[in-house]
User: What shape does this take?
Amino acid sequence: MLKKRIIPIQLLNGGRLVKSIEFGGFRDVGDPVKSSSVYNSQFADELILLNVAREPRSIASLLDVVVEVSKVSFMPLAIGGGIASSHDAAALIRNGADKVVMNTVAYRNLNVITETANRFGSQAVIVSIDVRWDPSMNDYVLYSNCGMTTEHVTLEQHIGRVIGAGAGEIMVQSIDRDGSMSGFDTKLINRAMAVSPAPVIGAGGSGNYDQLREAFLETGVSALACGSLFNFSDSNPLRAKAFLANYGLPFKKV
Amino acid sequence: MERIGILRMPLGNLQSVWNALYTSGFDPEFVDEHSNFDDFSHLIIPGVGHFKAVMDHLHDKDLPKRILDFAASGRPTLGICVGMQLLGLSSTEGDVETQGLGLVNGMVTRLPTEGQVLPHVGWSTVEFKRSHPVTEQLKQGRDYYFVHSYAMTAEIEDPVIGVSSYGRDFVSIVGQDNVVGFQFHPEKSQANGLQLLTNFAYWDGKC
Assistant: This one.
């Protein structure tokens, strides 16, 4: 049986880690290498590192960080933000990433997913989907380009396409909940899980352990990515899993 | 003194294995077909990718004989992931059955696909079936990080050190004489994985 995962999600902006609220209002939350080292000692299950710098959208700044982070972090490392080609993905993997996270490129060029999956395996490709709830449409709307560009495709259509292209994991992130610490959008996670044969990671809204319990138990999701929870509260992955284990949720034993 | 060689492979993240040993206090070196294998006390065969493609790569570089000679000398030899599978007799990955190095008595076949997604990716439990110098100090029933679609089964129990399950039971740690293999990635399995690599690096190859 596969274990549930708690994944600290770290946002990189110009060499520093930041935390956003609804994808804006960055606050400095430390150094990426030191922070990754701490998460390693707290037995996080995996790390996600995303470049959120708006300019330039390239992987250049990620390449150096990946090398340094992989020296201190002995767990699966997922890296993304600005991947434009399968060469970008390959460069990140060569530098120490185990998985790459693709977002905007997944709307523009599915071949990048396919080429990367063919070369490194589908498990190496996470497609991240940023979503807002639109009350006027009474539905979720997908956004690319750091939440700035509206995409005219439904959640279900997009997941179908990227899975068909070779994605091995789907991350759904609620922009509305980002940085709010008000809990995960379980309805969104359930929508994604209903159509995704691949594992789903829920993101956006982590604020306390009860919300993690609720999201795991109400959705059966395989992983939750947490930013604010670990950045701004006296919490860590070890304590989170100890709490959740009391509700029968399976986590790795160390 | 330990002098650890990590065999260069065509694909994947070799640096992680190096990093894991380095942080544990060793100073491993990458080796390839140009290296003198006699310089090394320990050999690690990492591996990501397709069994047949990796085996073809080894044959292209005349490496199978070098690896077999190294192992025959009694020095500790470790295979990781596909590197472990290569130690076995054969694999069904690819159109035809491909011969492995034959250092351990095990066959590699595809994991079941009914009701589950392949590859098997994530943290799964390893149950030790017997004691071995490489698993010293490690507790029973801990989790390690796996990424694979094929896995080894053993016809006889002797080489089985650890088993795991994903649709069926498979051999997750194998050991025969001075040769061991991990199906999971110790370099991505945090403290317990690093402990396994440390134990291997201090092992003299005797059981």
Summary: Chain A has a mean pLDDT of 96. Chain A has one domain: 5-245. The interface with chain B takes residues 1-3, 5, 40, 43, 45, 67, 70-72, 74-76, 93-98, 119-123, 168-169, 197-199, 222, 251-254 of chain A (CB under 8 Å). The longest helix of chain A spans residues 60-72.
